[in-house]
Amino acid sequence: MRKALPWIVVAILVVGGLTAATYLRPLALIGASKALDMFIPLSGAPEPIGSADLTGSGPGTLLSATTMPGVTSTFTGQGIRAARVVYHSTSGDTGAPTVVSGAVLTPLGQPPKGGWPVVALGHGTLGIDNNCGPSLSPTLMNLLPIAKVVINLGYAVALPDYQGLGVKGVHPYSDARTAGLNLIDAVRAARHVFGDVGATWAAFGDSQGGAAAWAADEQAEPYAPELTLVGAVAIAPAADITGLVAKSQTGTLTTEQRPVLQALIESLARLHPDLNRDDYRHGGAARYWNVLTDCGSDAAYKRAVAAGQLGPRDFLPVSPDAAQRLQNLLQAWAIPQRRLTAPLYVWYGGQDPFIDAAWTKAAIGRACTLGGTVTTEFDPRGGHNPPAAQEMLDWMADRFAGKKVTNDC
Q1: Could you report the per-residue pLDDT of 210-251, keeping only the tens digit for each?
Q2: Of the candidates 148, 171, 149, 145, which has an alpha carbon nearest to the alpha carbon of residue 160?
Q3: Contact call for residues 142 and 206 (beta carbons, < 8 A)
Q4: Residue-wise pLDDT tens digits, 344-377
Q5: Cis (ω within 30 of 0) for the bond into 112?
């Protein structure tokens, strides 16, 4: 399970700023494999997977499961099984049933006793529109190389698009609870597609996905008692970003935080029609609002230009009441909210331009107070991405192996 990783994968979760951080699209492992993928013709059309279990109606049960020839015909996708799934999940806000899409992938060959252990991958910000789901892309929006590394280590992968991405619906951007439930149900969906997927799993995510992994850890025991969560890795997690509101009031938003706040406001306005976007957008933000929410690759240049036109006060709330409402909405999505189910590993950097280190430190403190085991790795000179991922992968492998864990609380 703990094969040595080649040098190219030490940056497994390198995150590049699309349009100077309009969206935090992962660019990990985009090297030789991606170059080869560009020249391998895609073959075939998706087909239903006949052996998939489409019965039932609860969280994690399938509405559909189809092959992903666009994925498996690439160089990186060779040697894996892949299925695009549409499955039932749950809103973390209301508890209402939802429909979510994603991708599930496994190694080929003979699984270990008990089935393939699962790693649920929580992706970072890719956008907030329906067409921004990784499962719609033959490269999984550049996440396929990351998934392949995990698969080569002997794990199955469950990769949810998150609610509102990949299928119709509104994406509740930064709603960690909902994304966490989507992660858990992606593991359930994988087990309904491939009969050799086990019930033991770990969560692993960065940025938005780091918060999803953390939230999944909090919710796993009461929500999915039939699964065994061994641990969660949260890299630069967007656990509590309510501090963006105060920074918008003082004009101290970083260049990277401005488009993030734009996506948050737009997502909330879609969910709450009475939320007036004009209470928070001025200058370049007002002029380029629609451009900033477009996650299509053909709009990348326009997004870059638009992000460069955002000023530090372009998101100044028009009144204290407007600021308080935004604060309250973001606070409702913030974590931690309950005791951890399994050990949690948190990496964060002191120079992160997206998520202030003080916000993450405070969230870790609250998690310790609520109860559970937290292993913390703070890099005072680190940014939004760790320089290497081997330590995190080793920590995760140790949890699958049942080894003793360090508690930094």
Answers
A1: 999 999 999 999 999 999 999 999 999 999 999 999 999 999
A2: 171
A3: no
A4: 999 999 999 999 999 999 999 999 999 999 999 9
A5: no
Distance between CA atoms of residues 317 and 279, nearest Å? 6
Four-CA torsion 238, 169, 137, 44, nearest 10 degrees: 150
Contacts for 290 with CB less than 8 Å, ≥ 6 apart: none
Cβ 143 vs Cβ 29: under 8 Å: no
Structure tokens at 283: 């200058």
Q: Secondary structure of 286-310 in the HEC alphabet?
A: HHCHHHHCCCCHHHHHHHHHHHHCC
Phi, psi of 265 (to 5 degrees): -65, -45
Nearest Cα residue to 181 out of 265, 98, 272, 66: 98
Give 201's strand partners. Answer: 118, 229
Q: How many residues does the chain have?
A: 409
The whole-angstrom separation of Cα 146 and Cα 157 is 10
* DSSP H stretches of helix in 155-256: 176-193, 208-223, 243-250
